[in-house]
Design goal:
Length: 157
């Protein structure tokens, strides 16, 4: 009887380890994130961007943990507003571009309610107002913050 309990416990632990092995939220090399040459031609404004993950200077990115297909999406409108979604709520904000169109400041970015803000929602809300510049490449939209960190977005329909 004791050995069957041990085997059951070991199998349960192995199952849990296997389930947690490769999920969104994992740290992956940036080279594993798909690129598309057409992404470099997308405009900042009026494009719907979805967060791929949180990047660092070591060419690693932690994939965002999504709750739904619209999680972590943003649209920069032509009139200085940002519209989008966190993990589970509608979000909005305000932004301004510098005269050289490289600097980007987000003066406000907030969720309509913080109720049920889960997964990477709180980090997304904390990070967006820290953005200070952006670039668009074959990887997508890169919003830079904290000198060596960035948010990576890709266009979605």
């Amino acid at each position: 009887m004791k050995s069957s309990k041990k085997i059951g416990l070991i199998l349960s632990l192995l199952f849990l380890v296997a389930q947690s092995g490769c999920q969104q939220g994992d740290l992956v090399p940036l080279r594993e994130i798909p690129q598309n040459p057409s992404y470099a031609n997308f405009p900042l404004m009026s494009t719907k961007w979805q967060l791929v993950g949180f990047g660092d200077s070591k060419d690693k990115i932690r994939k965002a943990e999504r709750l739904s297909p619209i999680s972590y999406t943003v649209v920069f409108t032509n009139n200085g507003l940002i519209e989008g979604h966190t993990a589970s709520n509608y979000a909005a904000g305000e932004y301004a571009l510098s005269s050289d169109n490289v600097g980007l400041t987000i003066s406000r970015f907030f969720s309509m309610t913080e109720a049920n803000e889960v997964l990477d929602g709180p980090l997304f809300l904390q990070t967006m107002p820290r953005v200070n510049s952006y670039s668009i490449s074959e990887k997508g939209l890169k919003l830079n913050y904290d000198r060596k960190k960035y948010l990576l977005f890709q266009p979605v329909d």
